[in-house]
Give the backbone structure.
Amino acid sequence: MKILLATLALTIACNMLSAQVSRVDVQGSYQRPNIILFLVDDMGWMDTSQPFGDSVMPLNKRFHTPNMERMAKEGLLFHQAYANPVCTPTRTTLISGMSAARTHITNWTSITPNQATDYKDDQLEAPHWNVSGFSNAAEPNTYLCKMPLPQLLKDAGYFTIHVGKAHWGSLGTQGSDPTNLGFVVNIAGSSLGHPQSYYGEQNFGNMPGKTTFNAVPDLQAFYGKETFLTQALTQKAMAAMQYPIDNHQPFFLYLGHYAVHLPIQPDKRFLDKYLAAGLDSTEANYATLIEGMDESLGQIMQFLKEKGIEKNTVVIFMSDNGGLANAGRGGVRNTQNAPLRAGKGSPYEGGVRIPMMVKWPGVVPAGVQTNNYVSAEDFFPTVLDIAGIKSTGAVDGSSYLPVMKNPAVKIKDRPLLFHYPNRWTTNEDEGYAWSSGMRFGKWKIIYLMKQQKLELYNLEEDLGEKHDLSLSNPEQLTALARMWTFVLKQRGAQMPVWKNTGKSVAWPDELIK
Amino acid sequence: MKILLATLALTIACNMLSAQVSRVDVQGSYQRPNIILFLVDDMGWMDTSQPFGDSVMPLNKRFHTPNMERMAKEGLLFHQAYANPVCTPTRTTLISGMSAARTHITNWTSITPNQATDYKDDQLEAPHWNVSGFSNAAEPNTYLCKMPLPQLLKDAGYFTIHVGKAHWGSLGTQGSDPTNLGFVVNIAGSSLGHPQSYYGEQNFGNMPGKTTFNAVPDLQAFYGKETFLTQALTQKAMAAMQYPIDNHQPFFLYLGHYAVHLPIQPDKRFLDKYLAAGLDSTEANYATLIEGMDESLGQIMQFLKEKGIEKNTVVIFMSDNGGLANAGRGGVRNTQNAPLRAGKGSPYEGGVRIPMMVKWPGVVPAGVQTNNYVSAEDFFPTVLDIAGIKSTGAVDGSSYLPVMKNPAVKIKDRPLLFHYPNRWTTNEDEGYAWSSGMRFGKWKIIYLMKQQKLELYNLEEDLGEKHDLSLSNPEQLTALARMWTFVLKQRGAQMPVWKNTGKSVAWPDELIK
């Protein structure tokens, strides 16, 4: 009975928002706005001087992101936006509308096809996830999606531009080339998950004899020049937007910055002040990647203004997962997203909570903030909603356009999944291996599979997930575990397998005594 | 007086054709056709089963190009079309409308900027030519062209697509990126002049540790697959055309095949029959490159038919210079373009006469051939003419659209230049170093600078340029040398410099006693 109730509540919650959304027929007279998805790689919730929490916290004083501050003043800031713990699952969710639990792209994809990126483990084996990523053709080890977001937008008359990091599928798959997924123009997007080099002086990695698969393509005009990758991409993005602007055509720009992913190479223009502030060299370098990305945001906003299209352009700012807080960063491990716990690769807040804002002058109120929680799954239906396109097929999220138009709208509680049945790194602490998470209302439930342990946190009172309430709140734990299991099964989620028995790891509700 | 007369005749000849062309205002109701420039690299005049001479010659029996035969049946074939002796000069002429003598891009451009590709010589020094190629920005060692052909077409409403080899400028210059020159979409075009590999199995050269600057970009979806480069480019070209087709927009497709340039790697699907025919392995491999290119032509024509746009699409087939007949080919040196003399790199007919056809059902008569001689300079004004765009600024050629519409039209005689004041290879015979050439009427005049020698040929009677008439026709030689010098100077042509004196090599007319 309890299961039934929870299920019912869930179903209602899931349908609630969709019902509120008044979609606009694409054939109608609706003037479709341009849409820019400004996606930062590996940027943490705290990596900015613009607070995304309810107060200025210590890390906010470390970074300089004046353009993010400006965007927050001119748009709507989401305190509680979420992505997946790592990048490919978020990126494939963004253009499919489907949860990683459903696409079975639960880990990042290798550049080379048919090659799992999971770390080996003595006890657990990863499920047969789609290791080659996302494709628009039936190909081995890929998730087949015939109607990705850019394809829908293009078919509806949008001029679709991809600039920067794609990372949707491995080399040799259709998904490795953004033009196969509905982008008319692709610049610098392929299978690579990070750049070989951020430096024009190093041709972004294209150095005969030293070139790896991570060398960034298509930026040959900047070779040998002192142009940082973030700047090169920004310039190419602005040049590419000129065509639809000249042709009075609505455009969709997916600007996926390679920044601020490893390698943490400094943008030297910004370095001195961070060193002077006492940061260790890695963190100072990291801060320059952040500031260079912020500069790009400012230039894009300025470009829209100069072209006279600011009012008819929606800018969505987001990151693809939490900030790196494991190996690779400076400072003390697992402090880089403080007060959030852990970081990229983990279902704890540090791994999944992302900086997120939207700006649409005249439609979205300026300088407003919302506590509505949204997930990576919500961007697909939202973008379609903005474009006035009726989506066909199932999507796992809901449009947050009503909140954009009226921030007083309260999105009904619904479960958000952070399902990661893989081992990301050698480290196994802090949810970095074999983990899953769900947010529902104020609650966050974590499943550490190897330990066969459920944890329960009240995020309203415990943002840092320090106080596990699973023992003191057994009824809540039970209800959430059942809802969670239902949603995981509904989406066809995979679980790892115990090597000694060959059996799948238990579902969350099976852990309830 | 003689000089004056020649000059006058020349000026009249140059203006004659332009005056005949009835241009259509782009603002008018003219339905602009799609334009496809199908450009083959290094394909010789004889590298086809479709004769471009007046009879079937021995080499025509070597090759299998059924789609070229079909195109000849459906369009207009030019017996006497010309390009420059090497590729970059032709390619930069195609998109600038200007003679290589004027742009000072007289040799092929290096991938790395500011690096001349000329071979050193004891006696002569190359002039300061634009070694970094063509650019839309003022950059060192480049020819500045603000209004290249794709830019003009784009500005007039054409959707401009570049697929394949560009080779307009060195890495690090604006000209290295086709999107800077007016192409909305660029696939696989950069500074490289030949592919590192034709094989998808070798990722077209993109193999970490082995990747050179010649690795072909943007074809990642074919990596590891048995897709030959020519096929990959054809598939990408067809996919790219779909966007303007869906949007009822006229398009310009510049499909620059990397084939049939070195490396002569066999397309194994076609190899057996050429080996069985007794060709040596290099020539058999070469024949497969030709046949693969021909297959592409057939697929493009079939695509146009299937999409219902055959009648509104102009296809122009051409090569960028004569066939390679120097080192690198199989067989006996300098026989590969027989009966034409020499090959790529030389101003003799084998180096500059190219296979050329146009097809435009309903406008261009089918199965017709013309003896009108045309040059690389004529394509720019012709394409603009087809698109109904009034060209501003000087161009060195004239539109041959009148001939396309009515092959009975006779283009007035005018001088065509093949100016090559550089040393291409170690070989110095057959015009492969320090040479220049001019065609006027039936006459061909050759200048071998190091030898300080002029040669004169009557192409009507001596297609193979075997009988030098310079001694027996001194008056004709004098008149042509004067006209030639006038045109060279008018276009600002450069000459090499004698190392021992520091003086420029004499102009052709200075050789006349």
Summary: Chain A touches chain B at residues 113, 154, 157, 171-174, 176-177, 179-180, 184-187, 190-191, 203, 206, 208-209, 211-213, 215, 217-218, 220-225, 236, 239-240, 243, 247 (CB under 8 Å). The first strand of chain A starts at residue 34 and ends at 40. The two ends of chain A are 17 Å apart (CA to CA). Chain A has twelve helices and 16 strands.
